[in-house]
Design brief:
Layout (H helix, E strand, L loop, with lengths): L1 H9 L3 E3 L11 E3 L1 H20 L4 E4 L7 H6 L2 H4 L1 E6 L6 E3 L19 E4 L2 E5 L7 E5 L4 H6 L1 H7 L6 E10 L14 E11 L4 H18 L7 E5 L11 E9 L2 E12 L1 H10 L5 E3 L4 E3 L2 E8 H12 E6 L2 E6 L10 E5 L6 H13 L4 E3 L5 H10 L4 E5 L1 H6 L1 E6 L5 E5 L3 H9 L7
Parallel strand pairs: 3-9, 19-20, 19-21
Antiparallel strand pairs: 1-2, 4-5, 4-6, 7-8, 9-10, 10-16, 11-12, 12-13, 13-16, 14-15, 17-18, 21-22, 22-23
The structure holds glycyl-adenosine-5'-phosphate.
């Protein structure tokens, strides 16, 4: 994990937020490569779950919502962690994260457990007396319930159908930890899928299969994934059944995403609190009912972290250590690097020309600094699947070499076929080899 965190900082994937001020706990910044990587994760998720499906539509709702939303949803009442404080060093811990009954940091005595609401408060409004106190959303899904009627009456959807949303959520986590695994500001990728109660089990099974397929599709190792079924007695207040996908991180198994059957809890609660009917009218059958909700709820940061952990490889090549990030090509931040063998002899200009053309379609990179072997290694370290080398033969016959990151094998192809070569290998429509 330490090696990965250091690579992420060194190569511009992820930095601590506000680093020059000493950092701020639980907040992270995605650098030039990290932003591309996480964007690819979110875009691939959207591609698979929204674009390719005719039963899911998208939404991008406001992060700040009416304060009553959080009363109706149960968050004001229920969104608590049970915490204890150390009487000596004053550190605070989640009770369920503790192994003994003394402070894990200094061995001091702990206070009695108390409830701590993990929503981040904010005030909306310009003057002190008229400002309204509300919260930054702790999950993206509530706006989906609140907008349920607006969405279904404005789109050509009918139950069963889903609404998907990707966006920021905020939680005042007691102990943010394990790099970006548990942060205070993070991104979720959530779907609320509305169906009839009689079909809930069938849809639950289908969702499990689709979720599993997505994690394999972004390149995670199957043996590092598993399902965890929540025991009935520890289910969240809204849930009839919840299963989680877990990934084996270097620090142990951790939740990547949940799949919950929320029943009719949310639509009913918001109908009651707002006084607006959120039932669904099935015109062909002349039937009105409150749909059951299945919720696949994933974390974009956790998926990105799992992808980073899975991709990290160290190996020995000709007596030298090589660090290589084996990202699936569709997730890799840079798809191809164009490298002139040497800077001289018109090769740099030829390579720059090619890179400029490829850039219109793919995220590419040009580099002429240092020996070609060192440049290949730099690209391996950031997971660039293909390096295209322009050499003296290119000037003669218009061909280039394409080097594969994983096998390190090279093949020669005509320069004007490079775009088609990449097209076949780096798009979201490409599944695992
Ligand atoms: N709407 C349901 C919901 O929010 P959750 O299990 O609390 O359920 C869903 O969160 C997903 O959001 C988690 O599986 C995880 O991937 C991500 N997530 C939750 N809290 C997080 C945190 N503090 N930091 C990073 N990701 C988090």
């Amino acid at each position: 994990m330490e090696k990965l965190v250091s690579l992420c900082k060194r190569k511009g994937f992820i930095f601590q937020s506000s680093g020059i001020y000493g950092g701020i706990n639980g907040c992270w910044d995605f650098g030039p490569l990290g932003v591309e990587l996480k964007k690819n994760v979110k875009d691939d998720w959207w591609y698979n779950f929204v674009q390719l499906r005719d039963d899911i539509v998208g939404l991008d709702a406001s992060i700040i919502m009416h304060p009553d939303v959080w009363v109706a949803s149960g968050h004001v009442e229920e969104f608590h962690d049970i915490v204890v404080d150390c009487k000596a060093c004053k550190h605070r811990f989640r009770q369920d994260h503790l192994e003994g009954d003394t402070c894990p940091d200094c061995g001091g005595e702990l206070t009695e457990p108390k409830a701590f609401n993990s929503m981040l408060r904010t005030r909306l409004g310009v003057s002190d007396d008229s400002a309204v106190e509300t919260f930054l959303r702790p999950e993206t899904c509530q706006s989906i319930f609140v907008d349920f009627k607006d969405v279904y009456s404005s789109s050509r959807v009918s139950v069963p159908f889903g609404i998907a949303q990707v966006g920021k959520s905020f939680r005042n986590e007691v102990n943010p930890r394990n790099f970006i695994f548990r942060s205070r500001e993070f991104e979720q990728m959530e779907i609320e899928f509305f169906c009839r109660e009689s079909e809930e089990e069938e849809w639950f099974d289908r969702w499990q299969a689709d979720i599993w397929a997505w994690y394999l599709g972004v390149g995670l190792t199957e043996s590092k994934l598993r399902w965890y079924e929540h025991p009935k007695e520890s289910l969240a207040h809204y849930s009839k059944r919840t299963v989680d996908v877990e990934y084996e991180f270097p620090f142990g198994w951790g939740e990547l995403q949940g799949l919950a059957n929320r029943g009719t809890f949310d639509l009913t609660a918001h109908s009651k609190k707002s006084g607006k009917d959120l039932s669904f009218f099935d015109q062909p059958n002349n039937e009105r009912f409150v749909p059951t909700v299945l919720e696949p709820s994933a974390g974009a940061d956790r998926a990105t972290l799992a992808i980073l952990c899975d991709a990290y490889h160290e190996e020995e090549v000709k007596g030298e250590k090589r660090v290589v990030m084996r990202f699936h090509p569709k997730i890799a931040p840079i798809k191809a690097a164009v490298l002139p063998l040497v800077k001289k002899g018109g090769l740099a200009e030829l390579a720059q020309d090619l890179e400029k053309k490829l850039r219109r379609k793919f995220n590419t990179y040009y580099d002429h600094g240092g020996a070609i072997g060192r440049r290949y290694r730099r690209m391996d370290e950031v997971g660039t699947p293909y390096c295209i080398c322009v050499d003296f033969d290119t000037k003669e016959d218009g061909t280039v070499t394409v080097r594969d990151r994983d096998s390190m094998e090279q093949e020669r192809i005509p320069m004007d076929e490079v775009a088609a070569f990449l097209e076949k290998r780096v798009g979201f429509d490409q599944q695992r080899d």
